Amino acid sequence: MQLLAFARNxxxxxxxxxxxxxxxxxHVIADLRRNYDLSNMTVGLLGMAFKAESDDARASLxxxxxxxxxxxxxxxxxxxxxxxxxxxxxxxxxxxxRSDILIVCTPHRCYKDADLKGKPVVDxxxxxxxxxxxxx
Length: 136
Description:
Strand order of the largest sheet: 2-1-3-4-5
Number of strands: 5
Strand content: 5-15%
Number of helices: 4
Number of domains: 1
Order of helices and strands: HHEHEHEEE
């Protein structure tokens, strides 16, 4: 975004990259809705930070995903991971227990070996490569 601003919005490749990145949460939800009735499911979001092994949630797409899943009956459980500034986030075990499906939003190492209880997992990061319940 800084390069785009510096180039006075004349950096087409940078603009395209931003659009792809910002559109990822809506793309993930659209893909899930083609295969699951999310209105009756609890979606667990794993990792709310901007990047792995960080506690900084500024500009995190996890919150965009969280807001896109919200509705009259929000069905979300969000893991606090390293972010401690949001009092609404839950411990990992509780998120896994409450959720019908999980989304790895931020690829923290702690998810790689976590017992996800056989729940289907969306992992756009490839953190859980080879996992039996990873859906794409």
